[in-house]
């Protein structure tokens, strides 16, 4: 019994002394932030993150090579702690964003040829600026859907549809779209201009049935100074109250309302008053 | 923290083997028969609970800088005690568990629980966590061992069920261990994916 | 007899039959159209700058647009007439909107006065003179790439050989064949001027073994000439690709991402040599060139056409109606046009009409048969590149040498899983360029 | 001669027949964790090999010089793990200071090795099997090389698996485990070679 | 704007007409001589086993694609090829339920779980064969005599491979005397044995016995350009070289290497399993390394391990190395100067 104690005392002291000596003698300066991050990780050194141990993972996070939630074992509490250390705090002022598509072309836009090439919007853009008469619209080939690392984009009827639940607003699709149609908007924004055509009204409508024709009716209808027509109608999301006034007056239904992740066409108020919707439903211009 | 949550986390929501994928070495090595798996499972439950208790007690005493070596020391001491107990009372199990019994020391589950739970929670919660995670570990081992023993030797807990001609020796060899765990994880993944999709589509 | 060849490549099925459609045809000179559309970016590099204004009266051969810096080319009027518009038109083979000069023909056939020289005088010109003539006459590579020719001769790198490319490995095309058959001597004289311009001691004329008659003609014409060698090549696609041609002939590889001049070699098309000969001896700028019109048409043939003529003016409406696919360029490397309102530019050497696209099955998984790797003339691994592109791993594309791809289409042609490998590679290249 | 073939056999069986990963299930956590990239796998494998040999020497010495004379064999596990932990720490600190290049490539894997069952497992197995000093070192070396070989092969396959069209549910670890199953099946082929 | 819309796409506008179906069909055709030989020698046993594996392979392919909700891939014939090759590697007396299990492993586990044709890391037939061998070692090492369908008695007669194996086992244990005695059995009738091995009238797995049938298949595949010949040549060549060295070292006579190449499933494996596109390297250099690795491993395992045959194991091992070979034997890209890899390390 005594022997056990003595041996372990000696062993402990010896190893402790050597290690203390070594760590003092061979001390290498490291960033305190890095050490804090490593501290915050579980320290199981299980390797589940794919990095060599917790310090490897910590280093990768510190160098920005890995996201703060890299540790699958620690889960979200660890991620939040590390985010705090890294100074990436969840900004409560900013509303959560989601990606949306600024085109409602699909079959509404006239095609000029039958494109049977590769399903790559980049390539389509390089072949006569795409198969649509409208040079600004969506080709429907799904480069954004392929680029999305979260499978949040799905091609439905030739247009990308963003699943708001899966979308993390990472902005990859915004960069991927050669037509610059993807936009990150506040999640609670309901009213959107679904057109990016900056052509003159006449040219725009002749290439696509649902193009913005720059009639400026929306500008007049808006009580909050939230929509303006430059090259195309643009909503100022900080001012917009989702009152739908602009969508109601838009003659080409270029301004649409999203409800529960789906597009809802707003019937113009004029129709409600007169009771007859024949003219506006058939009217293209 | 609710006690039922700790139980749910330990047993299935964060199952050490099937979800967290920790402690793979004994999982694959000693699941050749159900009885081995039970022996290993009970050892882990006991050690995990004891280590959680002792670390929880000492959590305010141990300085942060040396906490990992200290934990390892505590766990190693506990393992040695259990090893001696099993050797004395269940020598057959001692032989069949072999080297994997002392290796519980380096089982990531125990260290992980110590570091991420016991060192931050009170004794009661830590005890329950130890038991729950241990049970989760044991259940997962039993699941794997069930398939391996049945397909490999045609028996369950030593009672022969299938005829000898259908025994697939390979199932109690290493490839069988990897294959069984891989397929179990895959099938589980299938169901959890389905659940996730349902949640997303709601 | 030694036949040169390169590593990789394919034999295209039925290639001989497709060429036979036009090999023996007469060269047709179409009647001048009423309007000519001359896009300003016919060459690789910067678009030219117009020097005429709307309403100006121009004569055939008159300078219409001047080159914008070194990497560009002059454009001359093929006909006499009035400038109608200078505006953006989309009907231009690169597929992008481009400024074009539209000339209305007045059918008076007025020409500017060309400065002609006798062959003896021409042979006494200095290198600088000839490069100047190249620049003035707006010479670009007529093999399809439209690389401004003078640039090849302007570098300060020493040139050891000039290679004339008469391979024409595309299955349908016979325009180069027609040039060589009908203008053997002009081609040789053109090469001689090129030798003077480059200072290179040695010239080669490369001909594939499916054009034996031309090869014999050249050999007889050149017998006794030690500076110029006629080289015979095995029939193989893409033998005519510049870098593959150089490696087959001289056993030297053009450095990765570089040009042939980096290893002291200049490669020009036989059509360019013919055009240079015309420019030096007759003083004529590049206003007309040869092209093949073939495929599913009534009378496939080779044409000598003014640059800027619309496809519509060259082919019967009937032929257009019965075909769904309109190709400009070759079967393997050309482009589909969606309208016949497309003008012929300096780069188009064939117009092919096809009833439909080839019926290729659905895209399947790669079965790693490695036929794309074995046949790739740039020794790439197209299937790996495609897989990287599919998985959005663009960063590693350069590691796999995507820049070396010459877009010959061999990989897509041979793939048993019908994977459009080249399309993936193109997409990857565009994505890389965009970053 | 006989001894030589025995020692050769120890190295060889460590690499192929009793492969530490595929037939003994030691170090599976890091096998599955650090095999997503070949570059990390090479580093990990080499670090494990180095630590295995050093730890074997230290634990062997401690066991026969201290524990056996004082009849403290029962403290084997606890003392070995402390020794291994200390050695790993020591190697790391020294490497960090003096062999910066090596530390960048190997050192980062060191903390992971303390809890790698392979190191403790091989140290205990050496004692259990009663190998002599040289034999222990060679067995440790063989096991380390076996670990290196398998983890590198496995990581190359896993890098390839990333690009394949694997059913959603099986992506990641399930298919990696199935791959490991067939790898160990292939290694069974070496059974009985010695 | 006219009404008619032209088709626009990207070059090339032609295709060679080559397809996976045709390639698989060619493999099936090349297997016909082997199948005929096996039916001739093993009669009903052969027919039953081959039918079972093929039918079950196709069925599993269909079912698994259905479960995974992917397009039906049965028409590409790869399942038929896998089923046939698996069947041909089994002994004629294999219980049919085991054959079905083999198809299950080959198609579902090794192929479809990895994503179907083109994605599998291991050769399905080889992996399934190895799995069955370990799982059911007794039924899978029961050989029957050709024509008579009686079980081979281990003491009196044996398969040619087991004769070779006996010699090798004795060499391994150092009992040169016994090795020589065992060898004298081969030596006494070596030409007769070689003749039998060529025609295939010996005990063994269904497809591996007749060298002639395999060579006819090989020639067909070479003519049709469906296989990479460098794998076959480097495999058989290196295996031959290793046995030549062995027979020189142990003085086993000039015909021993030939016999050990022809015996067992080495030829069958080299022609039909190792050359599988999906699991072999993609460059010429890589394929030669692959073949050499196969040859050496086959002979090493066959000679020194517990198992009678090393072909499937060596194929599995080299399949495993293939990604690494692929990475390090990439073609030099056109115009790129080779980077000296030595400088890095």
| CATH topology name of the largest domain in chain C | Rossmann fold
Terminal CA distance of chain D reads: 15 Å
Counting DSSP H or I runs of 4 or more residues, the number of helices of chain D is: 9
The SSE string of chain D, one letter per element, is: HHHHHHHHH
Spatial order of the strands forming the largest sheet of chain C? 1-14-13-17-15-16
* Strand percentage of chain D: under 5%
Using a beta-carbon cutoff below 8 angstroms, give the protein chain pair with the largest interface and the number of residues from each chain: C-E, 67 and 41 residues
Number of helices, where a helix is a run of at least 4 consecutive DSSP H or I residues of chain C: 15
- Residue windows where pLDDT falls under 50 for at least 5 positions of chain D: none
Number of domains of chain C: 2
Beta-strand share of residues of chain C = 15-25%
Radius of gyration of chain D using CA atoms only: 18 Å
- Write the CATH architecture name of the largest domain in chain C: 3-Layer(aba) Sandwich
* Helix/strand/pairing category of chain D: mainly alpha
The proportion of residues forming helix of chain D, as a percent range, comes to: over 70%
Summarize the biggest pleated sheet of chain D: none
Describe, in plain words, how this protein is organized in 3D.
- The complex is a heteropentamer of chains A (285), B (202), C (435), D (194) and E (345).
- With 285 residues, chain A is of the alpha+beta class.
- Helix content of chain A is 35%, strand content 13%.
- Chain A has helices at residues 2-25, 32-40, 53-62, 75-86, 121-126, 143-147, 172-176, 201-207, 217-221, 245-249, 269-274, 278-282; strands at 97-101, 114-115, 153-156, 159-162, 182-186, 191-193, 227-229, 233-235, 255-259, 262-264.
- The longest helix of chain A has 24 residues, at 2-25.
- Chain B has a two-stranded antiparallel sheet with strand order 1-2.
- Chain B has helices at 3-13, 24-29, 34-58, 67-89, 91-97, 108-118, 123-153, 174-201, and strands spanning 155-156, 159-160.
- Helix content of chain B is 70%, strand content 2%.
- Chain B has one domain (3-194).
- With 202 residues, chain B is mainly α.
- In chain B, helix 1 (3-13) packs parallel to helix 7 (123-153).
- In chain B, a hairpin with a 2-residue loop joins strand 1 (155-156) and strand 2.
- Chain B contains eight helices and two strands.
- With 435 residues, chain C is α/β, with parallel strands linked by helices.
- Chain C is 29% helix and 19% strand.
- Chain C has 15 helices and 17 strands.
- Chain C has a six-stranded mixed β-sheet with strand order 1-14-13-17-15-16. A four-stranded antiparallel β-sheet of chain C has the order 2-8-7-4, with no helix packed on it.
- In chain C, helix 3 (127-136) packs across helix 6, helix 6 packs across helix 9 (270-281) and helix 13 crosses helix 15 (421-434).
- The longest helix of chain C has 15 residues, at 184-198.
- The radius of gyration of chain C is 21 Å and the shape is globular.
- The mean pLDDT of chain C is 88.
- Chain D has one domain.
- The longest helix of chain D has 33 residues, at 38-70.
- Chains in contact: A-B, A-C, A-D, A-E, B-D, B-E, C-D, C-E, D-E.
């Amino acid at each position: 019994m005594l022997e056990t104690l003595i041996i372990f005392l000696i062993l402990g002291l010896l190893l402790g002394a050597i290690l203390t000596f070594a760590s003092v003698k061979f001390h290498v300066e490291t960033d305190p932030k890095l050490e804090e991050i490593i501290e915050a990780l579980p320290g199981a050194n299980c390797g589940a993150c794919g990095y060599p141990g917790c310090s490897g993972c910590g280093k990768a996070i510190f160098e920005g090579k890995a996201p703060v939630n890299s540790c699958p074992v620690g889960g979200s509490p660890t991620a939040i702690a590390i985010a705090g250390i890294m100074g990436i705090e969840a900004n409560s002022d900013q509303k959560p964003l989601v990606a949306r598509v600024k085109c409602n072309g699909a079959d509404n836009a006239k095609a000029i040829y039958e494109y049977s090439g590769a399903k790559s919007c980049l390539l389509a853009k390089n072949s006569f600026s795409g198969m649509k008469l409208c040079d600004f619209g969506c080709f429907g080939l799904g480069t954004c859907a392929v680029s999305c690392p979260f499978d949040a984009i799905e091609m439905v009827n030739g247009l990308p549809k963003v699943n708001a639940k899966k979308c993390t607003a990472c902005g990859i699709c915004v960069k991927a779209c050669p037509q610059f149609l993807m936009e990150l908007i506040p999640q609670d924004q309901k009213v959107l201009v679904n057109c990016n055509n900056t052509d003159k009204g006449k040219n725009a409508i002749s290439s696509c049935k649902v193009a913005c024709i720059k009639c400026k009716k929306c500008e007049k209808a808006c009580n909050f100074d939230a929509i303006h027509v430059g090259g195309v109608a643009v909503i100022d999301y900080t001012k917009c109250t989702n009152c739908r006034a602009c969508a109601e007056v838009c003659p080409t239904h270029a301004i649409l309302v999203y409800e529960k992740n789906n597009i809802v066409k707003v019937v113009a108020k004029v129709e409600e008053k007169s009771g007859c919707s024949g003219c506006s439903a058939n009217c293209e211009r | 923290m609710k006690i039922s949550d700790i139980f749910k986390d330990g047993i299935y929501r964060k199952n050490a083997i099937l979800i967290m994928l920790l402690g793979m070495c004994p999982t694959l090595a000693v699941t050749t028969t159900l009885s081995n798996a039970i022996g290993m499972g009970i050892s882990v439950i006991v050690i995990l609970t004891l280590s959680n208790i002792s670390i929880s007690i000492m959590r305010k005493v141990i300085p942060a800088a040396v906490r990992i070596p200290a934990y390892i020391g505590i766990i190693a001491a506990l393992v040695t005690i259990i090893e001696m107990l099993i050797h004395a009372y269940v020598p057959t199990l001692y032989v069949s568990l072999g080297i994997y019994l002392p290796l519980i020391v380096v089982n990531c589950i125990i260290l992980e629980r110590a570091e991420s739970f016991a060192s931050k929670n009170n004794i009661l919660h830590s005890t329950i966590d130890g038991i729950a995670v241990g049970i989760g570990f044991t259940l997962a081992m039993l699941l794997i061992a069930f398939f391996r023993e049945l397909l490999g030797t045609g028996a369950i807990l030593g009672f022969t069920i299938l005829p000898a001609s259908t025994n697939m020796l390979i199932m109690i060899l290493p490839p069988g261990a990897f294959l069984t765990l891989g397929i179990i994880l895959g099938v589980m993944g299938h169901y959890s994916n389905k659940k996730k999709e349902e949640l997303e589509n709601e | 007899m030694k036949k040169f060849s390169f590593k990789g490549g394919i034999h295209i099925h039925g290639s001989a039959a497709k060429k036979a459609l036009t090999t023996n045809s007469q060269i047709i000179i179409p009647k001048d159209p009423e309007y000519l559309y001359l896009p300003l970016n016919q060459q690789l590099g910067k678009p030219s700058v117009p020097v005429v204004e709307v309403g100006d009266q121009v004569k055939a051969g008159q300078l219409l647009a001047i080159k914008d810096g070194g990497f560009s080319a002059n454009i001359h009027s093929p006909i006499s007439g009035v400038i109608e518009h200078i505006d953006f038109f989309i009907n231009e083979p690169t597929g992008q909107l481009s400024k074009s000069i539209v000339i209305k023909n007045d059918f008076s056939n007025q020409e500017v006065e060309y400065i002609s020289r006798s062959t003896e005088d021409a042979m006494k010109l200095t290198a600088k003179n000839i490069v100047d003539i190249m620049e003035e006459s707006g010479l670009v590579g007529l093999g399809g790439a439209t690389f401004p020719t003078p640039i090849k001769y302007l570098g300060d790198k020493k040139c050891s050989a000039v290679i004339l490319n008469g391979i024409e490995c595309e299955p349908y095309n016979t325009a180069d064949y027609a040039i060589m058959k009908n203008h053997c001597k002009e081609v040789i004289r053109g090469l001689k001027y090129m030798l003077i311009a480059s200072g290179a001691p040695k010239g080669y004329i490369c001909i594939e073994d499916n054009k034996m008659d031309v090869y014999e003609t050249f050999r007889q014409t050149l017998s006794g000439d030690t500076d110029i060698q006629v080289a015979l090549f095995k029939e193989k696609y893409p033998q005519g690709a510049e870098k593959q041609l150089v490696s087959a002939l001289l056993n030297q590889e053009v450095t990765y991402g570089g040009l042939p001049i980096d290893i002291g070699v200049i490669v020009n098309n036989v059509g360019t040599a013919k055009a240079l000969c015309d420019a030096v001896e007759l003083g004529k700028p590049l206003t007309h060139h040869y092209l093949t019109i073939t495929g599913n048409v009534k009378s496939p043939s080779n044409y000598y056409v003014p640059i800027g003529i619309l496809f519509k003016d060259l082919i019967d409406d009937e032929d257009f109606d019965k075909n769904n696919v309109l190709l400009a360029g070759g079967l393997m490397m050309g482009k589909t046009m969606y309208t016949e309102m497309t003008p012929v530019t300096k780069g188009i050497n064939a117009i092919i009409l096809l009833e439909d696209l080839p019926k290729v099955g659905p895209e399947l998984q790669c079965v790693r048969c490695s036929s794309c790797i074995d046949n790739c003339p740039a020794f790439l691994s197209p299937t790996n590149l495609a897989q990287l592109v599919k998985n959005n791993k663009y960063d590693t594309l350069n590691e796999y040498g995507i820049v070396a791809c010459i877009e010959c289409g061999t990989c897509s042609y041979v793939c048993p899983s019908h994977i459009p490998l080249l399309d993936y590679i193109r997409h990857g290249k565009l994505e890389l360029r965009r970053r | 001669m006989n001894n030589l073939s025995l020692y050769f056999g120890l190295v060889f069986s460590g690499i192929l027949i009793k492969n530490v990963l595929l037939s003994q299930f030691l170090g599976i956590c890091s096998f599955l964790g650090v095999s997503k990239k070949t570059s990390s796998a090479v580093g990990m494998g080499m670090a494990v090999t180095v630590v295995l040999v050093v730890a074997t020497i230290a634990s062997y010495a401690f066991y026969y010089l201290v524990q056996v004379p004082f009849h403290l064999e029962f403290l084997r596990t606890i003392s070995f793990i402390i020794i291994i932990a200390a050695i790993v720490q020591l190697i790391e600190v020294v490497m960090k200071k003096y062999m910066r290049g090596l530390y960048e490539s190997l050192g980062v894997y060191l903390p992971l090795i303390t809890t790698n069952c392979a190191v403790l497992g091989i140290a205990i197995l050496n004692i259990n099997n009663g190998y002599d000093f040289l034999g222990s070192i060679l067995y440790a070396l063989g096991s380390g090389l076996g670990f290196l070989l398998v983890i590198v092969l496995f990581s190359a396959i896993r890098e390839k698996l990333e690009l394949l069209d694997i059913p959603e549910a099986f992506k990641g670890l399930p298919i990696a485990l199935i791959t490991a199953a067939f790898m160990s099946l292939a290694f069974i082929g070496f059974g009985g070679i010695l | 704007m006219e009404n008619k819309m032209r088709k626009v796409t990207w070059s090339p506008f032609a295709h060679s007409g080559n397809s996976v179906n045709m390639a698989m069909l060619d493999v099936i055709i090349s297997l016909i001589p082997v199948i005929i030989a096996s039916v001739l020698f093993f009669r009903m046993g052969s027919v039953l086993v081959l039918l079972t594996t093929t039918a079950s392979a196709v069925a599993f392919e269909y079912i698994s694609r259905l479960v995974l909700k992917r397009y039906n891939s049965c028409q590409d014939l790869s399942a038929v090829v896998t089923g046939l090759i698996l069947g041909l590697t089994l002994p004629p007396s294999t219980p049919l339920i085991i054959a079905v299990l083999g198809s299950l492993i080959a198609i579902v586990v090794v192929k479809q779980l990895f994503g179907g044709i083109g994605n599998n890391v291991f050769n399905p037939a080889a992996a399934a064969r190895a799995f069955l061998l370990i799982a059911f070692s007794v039924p899978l090492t029961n050989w029957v005599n050709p024509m008579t369908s009686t079980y081979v008695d281990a003491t009196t007669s044996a398969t040619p491979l087991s004769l070779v194996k006996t010699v090798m086992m004795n060499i391994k244990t150092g009992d040169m005397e016994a090795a020589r005695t065992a060898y004298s059995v081969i030596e006494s009738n070596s030409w007769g044995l070689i003749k039998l091995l060529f025609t295939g009238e010996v005990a063994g797995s269904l497809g591996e016995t007749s060298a002639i049938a395999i060579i006819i298949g090989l020639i067909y595949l070479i003519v049709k350009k469906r296989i990479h010949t460098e794998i076959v040549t480097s495999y058989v060549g290196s295996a031959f070289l290793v046995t030549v060295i062995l027979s020189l070292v142990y003085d086993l006579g000039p015909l021993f290497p030939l016999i050990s190449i022809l015996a067992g499933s080495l030829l069958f494996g080299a022609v039909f399993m190792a050359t599988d596109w999906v699991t072999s390297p993609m460059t010429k250099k890589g394929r030669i390394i692959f073949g050499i690795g196969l040859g050496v491993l086959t002979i090493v395992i066959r000679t020194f391990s517990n198992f009678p045959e090393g072909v499937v194991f060596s194929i599995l091992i080299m399949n495993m190395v293939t990604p690494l070979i692929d990475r390090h034997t990439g073609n030099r890209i056109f115009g790129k100067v080779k980077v000296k890899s030595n400088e890095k390390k």
